[in-house]
């Protein structure tokens, strides 16, 4: 079936289009809330992504994306929900966002839930530097991606969806390497973008098993960007994902 990484990239693209259409300005992904993958996407199925702005604050907004799956060739099959995703976007130029108008009680409820999620995020401690980033020892999966122009959005920085896809790929390798059996991503925890990366940067991804339970495990993945010409490196993202056997 479809790996979670490409799906995360599609979600980010869809959410970004919704954010920019609403705001009328360029936007960047600041964070993505927990995602639980309810159904896997198989070869030959159609994936539909629907995004809408749930709440708009001064210079940031929450965009929700619902992913559904259609089984092509089965006319009587109802679309199945794959997952729901909530992302926070900020206007690149700090432009004050327009007021979001609500036309139903359901939309008002989405806005209140978005306010609650924001309040929880603000209470969480800020991640400092490369805290928790593992040293390269036995059991650590390391991969490197060179940021090319096609990885970047219209503002010249790496599109968040590509970072998510690379991180999930590294995490998948770590999970399979540990178990020596097929594993699938069943959920991701809140993901925060700490800094941007640019064309020509080398993005290093380090993934390792952080906890193992009876039939599932948690994988931590850390991404950093190195300016190859200057020899400087900075953390750009951190993610924790849960994997389970696909058998």
Automatic annotation (TrEMBL):
InterPro entries: Cytosol_ACT, HOTDOG_ACOT, HotDog_dom_sf, Thioestr_dom
GO biological process per UniProt: acyl-CoA metabolic process
Pfam family, one: 4HBT
Highest rank taxon of the organism: Eukaryota
Keyword Hydrolase: yes
UniProt keywords, alphabetically: Hydrolase
Residues of the HotDog ACOT-type domain: 1-95, 137-247
Molecular function GO labels: long-chain fatty acyl-CoA hydrolase activity
SUPFAM superfamilies for the chain: Thioesterase/thiol ester dehydrase-isomerase (SSF54637)
Cellular-component GO terms for this entry: cytosol
Protein's UniProt name: HotDog ACOT-type domain-containing protein
Gene source species: Alexandrium andersonii
């Amino acid at each position: 079936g479809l790996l979670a990484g490409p799906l995360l990239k599609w979600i980010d693209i869809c959410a970004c289009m919704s954010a920019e259409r609403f705001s009328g300005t360029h936007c960047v992904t600041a964070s993505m809330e927990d995602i639980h993958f309810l159904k896997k996407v198989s070869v030959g199925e159609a994936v539909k992504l629907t995004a809408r702005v749930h709440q708009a604050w001064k210079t940031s907004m929450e965009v929700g994306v619902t992913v559904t799956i259609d089984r092509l060739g089965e006319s009587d099959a109802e679309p199945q929900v794959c997952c729901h995703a909530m992302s926070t976007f900020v206007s690149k130029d700090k432009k004050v966002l327009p007021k979001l108008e609500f036309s139903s009680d359901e939309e008002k409820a989405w806005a209140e839930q978005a306010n609650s999620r924001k309040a929880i995020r603000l209470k969480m401690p800020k991640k400092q530097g490369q805290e928790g980033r593992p040293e390269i020892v036995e059991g650590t999966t390391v991969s490197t991606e060179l940021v090319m122009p096609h990885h970047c959005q219209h503002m010249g920085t790496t599109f968040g969806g590509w970072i998510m896809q690379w991180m999930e790929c590294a995490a998948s390798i770590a999970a399979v390497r540990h178990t020596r059996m097929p594993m699938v991503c069943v959920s991701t925890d809140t993901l925060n973008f700490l800094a941007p990366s640019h064309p020509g940067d080398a993005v290093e991804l380090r993934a390792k098993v952080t906890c193992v339970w009876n039939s599932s495990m948690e994988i931590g993945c850390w991404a950093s960007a190195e300016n190859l010409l200057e020899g400087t490196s900075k953390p750009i993202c951190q993610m924790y994902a849960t994997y389970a056997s696909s058998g």
